[in-house]
Amino acid sequence: MDLKDKSLLETRAFIGGEWHEADKTFEVINPATGETITQVADCSTDQLSKAIDLAHAAQKDWAKKTGKERANILRKWFDLMVEHADDLAQILTAEMGKPLAEAKGEIMYGASFIEWFAEEAKRTYGDIIPQHQADKRIVVIQQPIGVVGSITPWNFPNAMIARKVGPALAVGCSVVARPAELTPLSALAMAVLAERAGVPKGVLNIVPSTDAAAAGEELCANSKIRKITFTGSTRVGRLLMKQCAEDIKKVSLELGGNAPFLVFDDADLDAAVEGAVAAKYRNAGQTCVCANRIYVQASVYDEFAEKLAEKVAELKTGNGFEDGVTIGPLINDAAVEKVQNHITDALDHGATVKLGGNRLEGTFFEPTVIVDVPHKALIAREETFGPVAGLIKFDTEEDVIDMANDSEFGLAGYFYTRDLGRVWRVAEAMETGIVGVNTGIISTEVAPFGGIKQSGLGREGSKYGADDFTEIKYICMGGI
Ligand SMILES: NC(=O)C1=CN([C@@H]2O[C@H](COP(=O)(O)OP(=O)(O)OC[C@H]3O[C@@H](n4cnc5c(N)ncnc54)[C@H](OP(=O)(O)O)[C@@H]3O)[C@@H](O)[C@H]2O)C=CC1
Ligand SMILES: O=C(O)[C@H](O)CS(=O)(=O)O
After folding, report:
1. Whole-angstrom Cα distance, residue 51 to residue 14?
2. 7 pairs with which residues across the strands?
3. Could you tell me the pTM of the whole model?
4. Which helix (H) or strand (E) holds 368?
5. Less Cβ crowding at N or C end of the chain, within 10 Å?
């Protein structure tokens, strides 16, 4: 890393607006090299509980500010994130491994949520409802839910926090955030800039730790926390939801996916290949909205497979800091083993490797294309979270919709066709929260991001994104 502003590489916890060491530290490792970047404060549950107390104390005054006052501070934070985007991207690539260009894209994506909700802060509207009795008047207002607990994953260590903290702060909540152990530095750098932007002490707290379960238990059990917002696996999301039941805490869950990617025989195949590469290999396949299974109509299957393999062969695997690299390392050995398991299982079910298929040095994995994959193979049933595309052949629209929907997940789905009737039929039939039609990239702050079934609850971003951080209050005035 060659940071212009070295103070962004913060290793202490941000609690109550102060920077704190902890009794112990943990290593943050660069997944591309295996080298230790630095040591970060490994906060105790007591420190987390203290952060919750300070967030609770700060939240009331933060909520008393006008939406415009909160908006101005968020806007300043956005401006600082953009000003320091190159440094933030280097920190992100160092701790997570994604290529620098993708890391810069994530920083701008994360910043776009702060910008969007700086604007939404001024629009927490209510309602006037025509009274039901002559002497009554009815007013509905929206109020911040209070202190929010945030738990986020390693794959988007900046944007996933921004997507939660942006709306929470905009409506007047305070936040206690625990970043993933593997990638705490991006979150801490965001806090450095939040402090400079004037976010009041205690409104934002970043509490790194190595004991995720203990942190989750404290955030879910502590009654000062009124809402948990989580992005990660369905396994952990289910656990957090159970842990929040005791306190009837609101939860927002952005969980695992298993996105189908459908290519119909009337599709623009070159566009479909471009979309498949974007949807499958972004972040080395480590996103919850990655195309996880690719269904191609029989008459164009071979042509699509050839074209896709040609494009995938152009992807360059390597250290994210190297020019031209488009595929970084997977996050750890477990991730590589999951990818290898999916490939082995597919081959055991009669599939063949058309391109790649091999682990490289460290946790790098060749961008891979597998053909003749059966629908029942693991690669079509579980989230692979790696740079492997499994191609499945289909005959009819009805068949492929049934296969696409044959999953407990329902986050994103994609399809390519130029038939307008089919666009509406398939988009409406797909059991997902997000549908990409003739595009492989759907992520934007202006649209509601979220899933159905076991892919989660709630939406992030868009005009809907603040709703999960407010409570609706109905005021009935009598004796008028
Ligand atoms: N929907 C999405 O965007 C994502 C989906 N996933 C899916 O999850 C799989 C596993 O990835 P992984 O990163 O391990 O996802 P996890 O769900 O295990 O981790 C996500 C976050 O939850 C934390 N966590 C883990 N266990 C607990 C717990 N008991 N209580 C509270 N918090 C906890 C993690 O902490 P820590 O990392 O420090 O252990 C991390 O900060 C991936 O292969 C992918 O399928 C993963 C990431 C994002
Ligand atoms: O968690 C993820 O994988 C992200 O939400 C994916 S995206 O928002 O960058 O599409």
Report:
1. 9
2. none
3. 0.97
4. strand 368-371
5. C
